[in-house]
Write a structure and sequence with these properties.
The complex is a heterodimer.
Chain A: H1 12-43, H2 54-78, H3 84-114, H4 120-147, H5 153-172, H6 176-194, H7 201-232, H8 237-245, H9 251-267, H10 276-283, H11 286-293, H12 295-311, H13 333-354, H14 359-384, H15 394-422, H16 436-439, H17 441-455, H18 461-482, H19 484-525, H20 537-546, H21 553-571
Chain B: H1 5-24, H2 26-49, E1 58-68, E2 84-93, H3 95-113, H4 122-141, H5 145-166, H6 171-200, H7 207-215, H8 221-238, H9 247-254, H10 257-281, H11 286-310, H12 314-335, H13 338-370, H14 375-378, H15 383-386, H16 388-402, H17 409-423, H18 425-450, H19 458-467, H20 486-504, H21 507-517, H22 520-529
Antiparallel strand pairs in B: 1-2
Helix pairs in contact in B: 1-2, 1-4, 2-3, 2-4, 3-4, 3-10, 3-13, 3-20, 3-21, 4-5, 4-10, 5-6, 5-10, 6-8, 6-9, 8-10, 9-10, 9-12, 10-12, 10-13, 11-12, 11-18, 12-13, 12-17, 12-18, 13-16, 13-17, 13-20, 13-21, 16-18, 16-20, 17-18
Classes of the chains: A mainly alpha, B mainly alpha.
Chain lengths: 575, 531
Amino acid sequence: MSFPKSDIITSPRVVKTLLSVFAFGALLLCAGGSIDALDAFVRHGSNVNGPLTPPLAFPFLIAPAVGALFALVLDLVWLKNAARLTRLRAATAVGAISLAVPLLVAIGFVAAMSSDPYLIPCASTLLYLTCPIYALTLLTLLITAGTSRLENPAEHVALTLFAAAGCQWMLFSGNLLFAFVTLELASLSLYILAGFDKRDPRSAEAGLKYFLYGGTAAAFLLFGFSLLYGLTGTIEFDAMARALAEQPVTPLLLVALAMVFAGFGYKVAAAPFHLWAPDAYEGAPAPSAALIASASKVAGFGLLANFAARLFNGTASADAPAGAAASIAARADWVLFFAVLITASLLLGNIAALAQKNVRRLLAYSAIAHAGVLLLAVLVSALSNKAGGVADGNADRTLFYYLFTYGLATVGAFGVLAVMERAGAPARNLRDLAGLWRRSPFLGGTLLVFILSLAGIPPLAGFMAKFLVFAGALRTAAATTANPLAAATGGTIISGVLYAATLLAIAASVVALYYYLQILKQAFIEDAPAAGAGDNAAAGDAANTAGAIKTPLSAGIALVLAAALLVVLGIWATF
Amino acid sequence: MSSLPWTIYLSFLGAAAALAAGKRSARAARWVALAFALAGLGATALAAFSFVPGAAPQVLVDVPWLSLLPAVDPSLAGDAGAPRVFARYLLAADGISMTLALLTGVAAVAGILFSWNIERRAGDFFALFLALIGGVYGVFLSADALLLFVFYEIAIVPKYFLVAIWGSTNRQYGAMKLVLYSFAGSAAVLAGLVWAFAATGAADFSFASLAAAAASAKLAPAAAVPILALLFFGFATLAGMFPLHTWAPTGHVAAPTGASMLLAGVVMKLGAYGCLRSAALFPDAFPAIQPVVAALALAGIVYAGLIALKQTDFKFVIGYSSVSHMGFVLLGLAAATPRALAGSVLQMFSHGVVAGLLFAVVGRMVYERTHTRDLRALSTLPLHRHLPFAAVVFVLAGVASMGFPGFSGFPAELLILTGAWEHSKLWAVAAAVGIPVAAAFTLRAVSLAFFGKGSGSEAGTAAGATGAGAAAPVLELHEPLPPITLAEKAGAGLLLTVSVVIGLRPDLLLQWIEPALNSPLFQALATAANK
């Protein structure tokens, strides 16, 4: 199969310009980012010991960006005339190394820290802040390597890596500007990735819709940020928190928060800002959709959690003005923003998923439903950092555990679809999955793990994640009710929201099981539609065997890794 | 004692082995599955021989499982900074666990023997079957509420596939209904569990800590009522409590024989067992839901019995009879005197064995030979002549099910009724109405299914068949029915033997159950419920 060579992106002048822009931007961001990141790292809710981070942080953060540039240079300079497959493999190898090395270093650090029981909380923080995004991106890359038919493989890999870098930096951002710039770096890369399949109009549609909604959301976010800046006179989260704790809640502040929540709500695909998600999931190339649904989610929720935990829990300085008593930190207004998003996401996601016939759209609506539970986790995390709360890092750990394991299951599910599409088997409608257990027992088995984990069936990680969120939410609710200080400051509202959201989420999980079983029903119970009209078992068997699907090695490794992690993390959910 | 945890591991290993063996042949898969089920039963029997009954559960395994990060406080040194364990992999057995583990072992072996003719995807079938069994063993042996819940859910999912792939009538509908009801029940249980944990401030999820925290002054009994209600009615869904029972008849009917034996035999017991344990966790809140439980149990006994009396599908008769008999279990729980509780546990065991046997006769021996379960059709044929073995087994099982002396149902129902009498005479009288109803629907099924009008020789059969009303379906035999296989005879023999042995010597189980009910938890329940 040959591909047209003369492509705008391979013309030398464009390449040079692109390269220099990317390199310059990446370097700039790295420099600013790593300093900011170190700062955030030391202060993120706690306690990562100073001496451990500096040697880790800078190379850790810039590795994917460097890998992206190297992959591009390698492809354009040395592999210009190589076969597409060679270029794909070379770029993937570079990308995998640039993600795997920092990942292993970070895990090594965590392992070293865990030997001292006193450092376990720090080790835990370090682990969940560093591992999920790179690990999920790495799995996505492996799936790409096994299944991609796209032209310009190196660009695809490079953009994936830029997205990973943007996502990782988002987690470490401690001020509005850096948060916005990193978010845009990740988003711009993902817009292109969504529309990357130039031969498929659905991909273009996905890219365009994702971009239009994303651009609007970014405008809202930026507007909210600038209002916040106007109200507080600073862009640093911590200084803003102090300033907000010293002034009463004004309508302007609520408008600013509404804007910010709209922006974040878009980023994490929470209802009612979810409209892009089904289209983007449906049309984007499978690996891009996997990335949008996993690593980018981790980053969005991580940033929101960081933002909420710091901004709404500021403590006024000692010479606090009278405004402190009516400040956002002392009131429960912001909890209501969460309440609206959680309720809408749980209801809309689960109910709309029931009606879906397309697997990817079903996964998109299930993602919206999961966003509801995740927002509950974010809310608990923000509340547990409150003065008088239990600031022990459990809520953050739960949030990231949920994000990571949810990401694994989603990447896995998209991986299965990608492998099927690669083998020429359609994987759009639920019906297309019929008889998967016989066409490929391997894909069927891994899909079973991913879907059951998404449905929250023990002993898989999806169950533990939900359980930990619910237990944390009710523990926080009980603590808030018991705490007279908190009870005076909107505690009744807070505990009411927590109880209601938890019960709603548990009830919704029953609805969710129905649509997840629709996937498994096709994959394990139905037979593949026979080519002829034959309805009998023999014809069905023949069709099943005829449509056998082979799994490429690298995608197989990624699926096995994801499934194994879901089982292992489900059993050892806390460590 | 240490062989009990192996029941769990052997079952899950067996599931993997059966899956692998299924790639070779169906024959290999079923022998592997039988070997692992026998090994599980053997491990239970081994533990039973050395079991010393006592009030305190005997701890089998205790490993830290889930922990919370400690609050970060530099002033704390040493152990204070260590993670706090809040859930343990804690397996323990008291007499109740032991009884039900034994039931699980018997039901697993019998279920596999009655699934001997599964040819299609046999490896998958036995893998799911054994995975379900592993979950069931796990539930009965867990002494940590969260661990119990995990095993409970592990047991739910295989049911869907067992029914939906190998089932018969309306299998997809029955399977989905079954699994959604179970999952809805377990969602209520999950809500109750996390709520109990948060509200009591218990140190961990073990029964002992939860009960201790609930008993402490921190949680008012009134506040514990919604928690107990969530737990109890969540579990009761799976126990087939009226009016949440409707999954049971459709599910049982849709399921393949082996799976319906398990569903009625052990899975419904999971629910009843969960009800028993959760009531013991919140004894002070129990009186608040006690009348509701009793009323629903009584309604179930009578209503399901009456419905069974009207069914034309043979399997629906047995399905509704299960609901009716589980009503007795729930009534015993509601009365909550030591005698009634002992009766409940004994009834769980007894019903597990007897219902398994009934489903085996209907599903495997009759349906898979005659290809009909319509009682009107069956009544056109003197089936007792064609399948004398099935007829004998069904009559014996029916007699056991009616609660005749000499079979396990008798001591169980007697204990429940006398226990209920101790609590409230009205309950006992109302429940006693269920016994003639049970006799009526069982005898009706026996006479219609096995002693049909057609009499005499084969020729007579044909004549009788043509003579029947035009509207009624007619069963005609064009060739002799296949004989009862050895596997079926072995399975039926096993279940019948167990039922008779326990019927004649109920003390074999009661000597385990009664000491367990003397533990402080159940004493508190009995005291609170019978003030």
